[in-house]
Write a structure and sequence with these properties.
With about 350 residues, the protein is of the alpha/beta class. The chain is built from 12 helices and 12 strands. Strand 1, helix 1 and strand 2 form a beta-alpha-beta unit. The longest helix has 23 residues. It binds nicotinamide-adenine-dinucleotide (NAD) and 2'deoxy-thymidine-5'-diphospho-alpha-D-glucose. 2'deoxy-thymidine-5'-diphospho-alpha-D-glucose (DAU) binds next to helix 6 and strand 8.
Length: about 350
């Protein structure tokens, strides 16, 4: 094997798309998927590649330093792509410490393990950290986040991601490890856990449940199809410049309420429902505290330096995503049984 690439969080939404892409595209890379399988991790996401000769899975928590060391020793890990995280803003408002443990302490554990394992020659190894545009805070009606926008995180989630980004930077400056960070906008697509806006609303439309739009619905997000994010991660991992940061975005801003109406229209067509049927489910509910008004990424650096741009239009991506959820009802039933019901009730009852 030319490289032994440890991908953390590979059983989650974005991680599973990255694992699949790299396993299929690079038979000479061994892909080690390390994941604790929290509520968000699901090996069903990877059923199609789990028998591949260049793929292994390790059920490991990044808070367990001994177990991390064992994984590095066993597989002689040469590089890391770090996606494991607590990723949902609403959960971070309820339980900030969970985000401190996994996103900050877990990242530092991983950095320490990599530093100790690679200390003979850091130039042969890369620690690639996957982060979010939320570290930059909130935009007004105009402007974009660039790689030099100052950090101004507003939620416990984004504060924990910002902190992990800073630790990656500090390990580069202090120990001279080779690191890259990328900060991406909102992803959507197959395997998205139905706590986030798009999959939650698809699930509710299927079951004719209320669609809880926070606040005035005028909040704006920049949406990117998850497979295009996976392609960007592949490109950055193989061709990105160590020490650099890259912003990744969809050039695709939508106000939440407009996106929800589009989703309703597309789903009514696909489900054979009359026009306007699902829009009646829209219910305005209490706003998210500290809700960032607008995110928008300027992705010109990765475009100009590495030639990346999204390959899928929003109409195509959203249509494929809905089709995937309608075709994978068993997946949806599995992830929305048990603990999900408890989560849903605690988050949305009397909101
Ligand atoms: P996700 O919640 O779907 O998946 C997270 C994965 O990490 C799960 O498989 C979970 O089991 C695993 N995990 C959680 N805690 C762990 C721990 N302590 N040890 C080991 N594994 C653990 O998240 P996602 O949406 O796929 O996001 C992946 C990464 O990308 C995160 O770092 C997130 O901050 C970042 N990101 C996400 C988006 C987005 O729109 N979803 C956008 C930009 C950046
Ligand atoms: O920008 C990147 C980030 O995008 C990632 O770092 C996060 O991991 C990811 O969860 C996502 O964060 P958001 O908070 O933007 O995503 P979410 O899907 O939770 O919400 C999108 C918008 O929809 C936001 O303005 C809040 C709103 N919303 C969300 C939910 C779950 C609602 O109006 N109702 C809802 O029920």
């Amino acid at each position: 094997m030319s490289r032994n690439v440890l991908i953390t969080g590979g059983a989650g939404f974005i991680g599973s798309h990255v694992v699949r892409l790299l396993v299929n595209k690079y038979p000479d890379h061994r892909i080690i998927n390390l994941d604790a399988l929290t509520y968000a991790g699901n090996l069903e996401n990877l059923a199609d590649i789990e028998q591949a000769p260049n793929y292994v899975f390790s059920k490991t928590n990044i808070l367990d330093t001994e177990a991390l060391k064992q994984v590095f020793d066993t597989y002689q890990v040469s590089d890391v792509i770090h996606l494991a995280a607590e990723s949902h803003v609403d959960r971070s408002i309820v339980s900030p410490l969970d985000f401190v443990y996994t996103n900050i302490i877990g990242t530092v554990n991983l950095l320490n393990t990599a530093r100790d394992h690679w200390k003979a020659d850091y130039s042969k190894h890369l620690f690639y950290h996957i982060s979010t545009d939320e570290v930059y805070g909130s935009l007004g009606d105009s402007g974009f986040f660039t790689e030099t926008t100052p950090y101004a995180p507003n939620s416990p989630y984004s504060a924990s991601k910002a902190s992990s980004d800073h630790f990656v930077r500090a390990y580069r400056e202090t120990y001279h490890m080779q690191t890259i960070v990328s900060n991406c906008s909102n992803n959507y697509g197959p395997n998205h856990f139905p706590e986030k806006l798009i999959p939650l609303f698809i699930n509710n439309i299927i079951h004719e449940k209320p669609l809880p739009v926070y606040g005035d619905g005028q909040y704006t997000r920049d949406w990117l199809y998850v497979k295009d994010h996976a392609l960007a991660i592949d490109l950055i991992f193989h061709q990105g410049k160590p020490g650099e940061t890259y912003n990744i975005g969809g050039f695709n801003e939508w106000k939440n309420i407009d996106l929800v109406k589009l989703l309703c229209r597309l789903m009514d067509e696909k489900l054979g429902r009359s026009a306007g049927y699902s829009e009646k489910l829209i219910t305005y509910v209490k706003d998210r505290p500290g809700h960032d008004r607008r995110y928008a990424i300027d992705a010109s650096k990765i475009n100009q330096e590495l030639g990346w741009k999204p390959t899928v239009t929003f109409e195509q991506g959203l249509s494929e995503t809905i089709d995937w959820f309608l075709a994978n009802t068993t997946w949806l039933e599995h992830v929305t049984s048990g603990a999900y019901q408890h989560y849903y009730q605690s988050m949305y009852t009397n909101r």
